[in-house]
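User: Can you fold this complex?
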Amino acid sequence: MSSNPEVVVIGLGNILMEDEGVGVHAVRHLEDKYRFNPEIEIVDGGTSGLDLLPFFGPEKSILLIDAVNFNMEPGTVASLEDDAILAQLDPKISLHHLGLSDLISISELTDRKAKKMTLLGIQPESMDNLDLEMTDTIKGIFDKVIQNALRILNEWGIDSQKK
Amino acid sequence: MTKRIVVDPVTRIEGHLRIDCDVTNGQVSKAWSSGQMWRGIETILKGRDPRDAWVFTQRICGVCTTVHAIASVRAVENALDMEIPVNAQYIRNMVIAAHGIHDHIVHFYHLSALDWVDVVSALSADPKAASKLAQSLSGHPNNGWQEYKAVQDKLKTFVGSGQLGIFANGYWGHPAMKLPPEVNLIAAAHYLEAFEIQRKANQITTILGSKTPHIQNVAVGGVSNPINPDSQAALNMERLALVKELMNQLQSFIYNAYIVDVCVVASFYQDWLGYGSGVMDYLSVPDFPTDSKGTQFGTPGGYIPGGDVSKFKPITSFHDNYFRDGVKESVKHAWYKGESNLHPYKGETEPNYTDFQDNGKYSWVKAPTFLGKPAQVGPLSNVLAMYASGHKTTQKVAGVALGKIKAITKSSTDIPITVLHSTLGRHAARAVRCAVLFEELEKNYDLLINNIAGGDMTTFNPPVFPKGEQQGFGFHEAPRGVLSHWIVIKNGKIDNYQAVVPSTWNAAPRNDNDAIGPYEASLMGNPIADENKPLEVLRTVHSFDPCLACAIHLHDNKGKDISKVNVL
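Assistant: Here's the predicted assembly.
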C-alpha cells in the first residue's frame, strides 16, 4: 500500500457463481503468475461498488476485467474504452446497490475520473449455479483473457514477465 | 377500485427485489415482497474445512463482506466452545464499527436520500440562504456560501451534460417531494461530501483488515494481525495513529451533518413519522464483546414484542439459548420444497420454483420467525433494545435528535420516542446507531492501546476439532440487523451451513400462519400519489436498507451502438 502505482487492474465478479467470477479468477492468475514493471496495483474487487472508489483518480489508468452480457457467443472476449463503457452499460440492469456504471459516474462527480479506462469483458456461458468452477467454455478462453490483459497493459507501458 | 403496481427491480439496493402492491383509494391495501435470487451457500461449503468458511461467506454479498466473515468465525468458535483473545475482540470490534459507520452513511446519503431530496430543485437554490440556514442548524465546517455555490455549479455541469448517471432513477419534481431548494442544496452538498467520508471509514477497515473490499485478518480463534508496536510488518503504533486520525474526521460528519440532516428531512416530512411501522416485534442481538467468552457487550440486544420497550428481554451471551432456540424458517410461501419451520441446524435449500402466486409461493427468500412470529430487524430494533436497556449514548443521542426535530418544526410539545416506529424513524434510528458505533470505535481503540501497553500481544488461539459432531451459531448485529450463521461440523468438516441474513427477516414473505413479513406490513396504508411513480413504496422499502444476498452482478450491455465494442 505504500507505493502508489498509476496502473490498476480490477477483477470484478462473484467467484461463487461459475463464470460470474471470471474477472476475479483472471486478476488472481495475473497476481500469482506474473511480475510487472513498473509495478501495478492488482485488485480483487469481488462484487463491490463504492468500495472501489479509492482506486480511481485522474492519474490512474484502470483495466477492469468482468463478465459482460454482450449478447454474443459465450466465450466472446471484447473490450470497451473510456466513455463507451458508461454509454454501453445499462445502469438499471446493474443488480448492485451501486454498480460499475454508478461507480464511474461517481468518480466523475468527485473529481476522481480515471485518465484512461478499459473494460475487458467476457460473455459468460452459465452463472446460474452456485459453483466455484467456471464452465469449460470459459476455461477454454481463459488464456485469451490473460493474453489480452497483458497486451493492454503493454500498450500502457507495463512490461510483464512470467514468474 | 384496486390497482396492482409492481416495482421490479427495486433500484438503489443491494441485490434483486420485487415489490407488488395492491392500491385501493390511493393507499396500499396489500403487499408482497419477493426476493428474486436463490441462495444456498451450503452447497459450496459442505465438506470443507470450517476454518475456511468465512473466506467463502464473505463473497455472498458485495457490500456486507466483513459481516459474513465475522458471523462465520463466531459460529465455528461457538461450535468448538472457544475463547478468543481480547485483543482479537477489540480489533474485530473496530472493523465492525468502521464498517457499520461506512454502511449507515452510504445508506442514508447514497441509497435513500434521493427518495426525499430533489437534486434538480437544488439547482435553483440561493447559496447564501442555504449557507445561513445550514449555519443555524449545525457547526459543520463546510457551511460557507462559496462552498454551496461550488456544489451547485458542479451539479449544474453534471446534470447539464445529460449524463444523469446515478441521479437517473430519481423521481424529480414528484408531488411527494417537499424540501425547499436550499435544503435540497445542503443535502446535495453532504451527499458529495459523504463519498469522501465513507472512504475514510473504509480506510480504517483496510488498515485493520489488511485489505478491502475483502478483509483478510479474521481467523477462527482470533485475528491474524500480529501486534508489534515496533515492527513495520505488524499492526504498529504508526498504523494505529493513522486509525485515530481517520476516526476524528468521522466524528464531526456524524454529529454535524448526518444526524442533523436526518432530523431536517423528518421535520419537512412529518407525515412519514406516521407511516411505515409494520411488524413491531423487534429482534436485535448484543455486539462488541469485550471479554474472551462473549458474555459482556458494548451494545445490548434482545427481543421487544409488540413495540413495548417495557417487555424487552435481553440476549445475554454468544451461547444464549433463548436466541438459539427461537429461530426457525418457514418455506410455505418460498420457492423451496421440503418441510417448513425447520431450525437452521436442520435447514434445507432444495429449490421448487412455481411462478409468482399471490396466495402460494412467491419468493426466493425464506420467512424466518422468532418464537413463531415474523420479526423486524435492523438499527431501529437495535436502538429500541439499547434504549430499553438504559444504554446512555443511545438515550442521549436519541434525545438530541428528537429535540432537534421539535426545534425545527417549532412544535409546542415534545416529540415522543414512539415516532421511531415509522419509515423515517428507521432512518433516525440508523443515525443514532451511527453515533453509538463511533463511540464503540473509540472505546475499543483505547482498550486495544491500553492492553498492548500492558504487554499483551496475543491475537489468536488455535482451534482444535474433536471427532464427532458439533453444532454452533454465530450472531452479529450487522448494519442491516441480526445476522446469524449456523454450522454443523462432523469429524472436522462442514456438514450443514445456513446463513440467516438481516434482509431475510425483513424481506420475508408470508410465513406458515400467512402472517405478512416486515416490508409487506410496513407498506400497508402508505399513500400513493402517482401509481406510475410509486416513490412512496421506495421510501418505505429503502428505509430498511435492503440487501438481497448479492449473488450476481453481471454487467449488461445496452445492446445498441455495438460498434464501440472491440471483439478480440
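The mean pLDDT of chain A is 88. Residues 136-155 of chain A form the longest helix (20 residues).
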